[in-house]
Amino acid sequence: MDRALINFLNHGLLPFTGRKAELEQVLRFWRQTFDAHGLRTMMLVGEAGVGKSRLAEEAASQISLAGGVVMQARFYPDAATPLPALLARAVSRNQAAQQLLKSDPEETLSGVVSAIIRICGLRPTLLVLEDAHVLHGDGVSELAPLLERLADEPLSILLTARPVTLAARGLIERFLVDELHLTGISESDIAAMCTEIFGSNSLDQSAIRTLAEKTLGNAMAVRSALRGAVRPAQSAGGRAAASVAIDTRAFADQLERNVRLLSEGMVAHLTESEKATAATVAVLGEVFARETAAKLLPTFDAAINPLIFKGILSTPNASPSSLAEHRAVGTPLAFTHNLIHRHFVENHPHDPTMIVRLLAEKSTLYSILPLEILGKHLDSVTADAATCLEAIQSILTIAFVVDGTPMWRSSLVMWEIASRLAAQIRLGLQELAQRELEATLIRYRLQLLRREQAPEFTTLVERMLELTAEPIDETWGEYRLAVLIFQRRMLRRKHPERLAEQWKEVEQVVERFPALRYHMRYAGNLIDLGRAASTLRDPQLMRMVERKLHELQNDPATPEGFAHSAFVGVSPNLFWLYQTEAELQRRLDSIPELEEKTLPNRKTDLRIQKIGLYHEIGRVDEILADADRYLPLFRELGLRPEVMSCQLVTLNANAMLGGDLATLATQAEEVCANSPQPLKAPGRQLAGSILIRTALLRAEHQAAQQLREQFGVSNDSLTVTLTYLLDNDPINEIEGTATNLREPIELLARLQQQVAATPANLEAIQELAEAIVRHPILAIDDLVATHVLFRLIGTMPQEFKALPDRLRRALHDGLKRAVDHLERLRLPAMIAPMLKEFGHAFSKGELTAHRARLAALQREREAEQLASNEAAETRVKVMMFGTITVQRPGEEPERIRGAQLATLLGLMAANQMLARPLSHREFVALAIGNERDPDKVRKSLNFAVFRLREVVGSEAVDTTGEIPELNRDAVWIDIVEANQHLKEATRALKEGALLRAVPAIAAALRIGSGQVPFPTLYDEFFESAREDYENTVRETLIRVATLLAKEGDLPNAEELLEQAFGAMPDDEEIAELYRDVLLRQGKRTEATRVEMKLAEQEEA
User: Is the bond into 759 cis (omega within 30 degrees of 0)?
Assistant: First the structure.
């Protein structure tokens, strides 16, 4: 038999016919990726069975042959898999992608975005997302941040969907460049298809016409109709002959029956036994685990293999997450079409008792469908009580898992099923077992309820408190700890003053059951209390939390991993709590420790919090240094909120240094405008509030009012003191403002009242002023109180001279502490207005001395700015890591538009790294192609150079030599600089100067940051350049780190390897070396975490 016929009879595969134009349209969409400036989407729309998946598969095959990468994922209507996890698995199952990544991406948004960005940088990439029409609700919400983070990447996404209202259409529309509506294949194409399959035995023209009319050209209907109407011819011996028999007279009648219902036609070729097998496993969901199906099928392989062979089942491109924590042993199976799956689910009886047994056995499930079926047939369950109890626990565990997915609304439905099943067996249980079952159900119900203010929440908490009032063992003690968390959330809203008292009961439970002190329920209570204290801004409560944390850390019996979890969970809530210089220093000291105990790829939150803390305390130099280091990383990871916050804080740091407020406000507006929609409004509030504070501290009151109007800043975003300086209202009547725990609000309000009283109580005024002055100045907000103090008492020199000595001394001391603090922070732009407005509080000698220090500070800052300008702004920056961009002095980075310009720029950068530069012939061949006409070559190259000069500047490109070159005096090229550092490290190693090699390799790592060199340049020359560069970095790094460890310089080795592990987390040799260095320093916890990462890679 001909192969086309064999494939059709055995597997139901039709020849790919009649889609040449549509295939070319999809391929053309992918080819345009080479010149793409950002994310692009294409919609492939068609009815079920029309051939969307087949077209996508054919395109994927041709793209892969052309050197591209195609990653495919399908959305399933009954699966509870978060989108990042689904895409991470699609990446992991793609061989070409794995070769580029070397390890599986994390199943998080940041992890999958980083992986896709790297793949896009190395290969022209197509992401196929099938059945987008099933996305709704939170599924659409998950898609939004993914598209935002990939918006600037050269990625093409092909989405297939049925012609229905698409919930995600609004998100896709922004990036949509093409849309293809698939209709049925034509009669002539059906004829060609039949001829290719059946050869000389093909259908006659009338049968072809009938086939086209009845199926409307729907490919799946055509396939099922043909499979039901043809059969292999029999040889004399009874075996299938190399031909087929077609009863053309009965064909029309047979066809009518086969396409009456498409879903029936899709399974028309199955035997009754095969249909029964398919119906049995269909209850598990559209995707199911092999080992779970094997529990239902005594002869699993024999039963399943025919369904795989006949195209009913297949291995999914990207499998969804298993529910609960039961991981599948092998690769799951999936029905090839949801219409096939639905047919078996809707047309066959179900056994709810069998589902209960599967749940009781903790069987791996990928779909919530078995639970939905169980809910409909719960009254028919005949399983015993013990089996039902195990099943109830599984259902509740699954509900808890689903609650964290886009299908979270189904979690309460699952709880109801568990509750109804419990009601059926409750009377047969002992009283204690009944109470434990009720407590279990309530605990999960409380975890699943999202509205803590609902009456049901209160009722359930009260009942749980009643059930657990006298815990008899550790299990009931754990229940008690669980309900205390929920009770605390009620107290936080209604009776926050009772939180400290409530904590005593937590301690009583763990005193009674000591093992629970090291249980995550205890840590959960401590973390929850920290959150409550942070929300309420209650320093006493937070200090209690900190004390309990220290007790855990200092307790020799505390398991190391448990102490680490508690420390990492609690500490971020302590950052803002500092009432003294010593407390603030402890917060600052905790940051390096937290960074040390957090793996490099999980440090983003700490980094943004650190920048935020530096901003609050006015350390502008640290802000600018960290922002310069971390902002590119945030951008690469697509962390838009962090990018926006970092940019706004950086702008305000420049305002604190004296930058023009109007210009910085305009730039802040641009930052907010370029941020995703959900970030625009909060971004404007943040930008406006911090710039207003800086404007007021610079005594630019009119500018502050203009900023308030410009950004529409509400009082909720301003502290009481800032609102007073803007409005001059009675301080004790200002409402709805942001909280600053260190603001002496009560003292300032009383002072305002005393100053306004007639007659004024001078003694009270002096005491209040002295008390206000005694408040520590730790943060920028604390300086505002000094401005308020002078405004209340009088800022004019004549008014000041008339004040009593004691009051003048208080004002003098307050001003001196503020100015001294600002001098330590080196913020002359805030010192100058203080000396101008309040300097009369100083003696002439003091004022002269402060003015001299101010002048010196201004000269220092001007010199630093000048040096920075000379170093950073006199040359154009060309970036060849991550994204090919050009940054002119004082401007934002700009992505290079056009593949030819990117290639030309990449060639000129790479040429400066070569030991033997490219010849003119080589350069032209790579830049222009294989054009042989010298005149055309010259014109094409000249025109490309002309266009490039428009982007990078006329002086940036030197054309005096044989080939164009980048002028290093006018251009700074990141990969060339990194390569120079690598050469310096290599020279230092040859000369035995190890200490000189360390900063050199560290600088190269810092510039590259683990990003793809020469991204989106796919020529073999750049592939080789990439590989050479990355190999050199790796080899040099390992040599330096190994020598450091050998010499006993473990701290330097650790610092270098930590940086390398963050940039190359998939490199086993680096990870092993990092682990060994950690172990030699006794840092077992961190070494264990690196080992966990290594184990993940081995498993992958």
Answer: yes
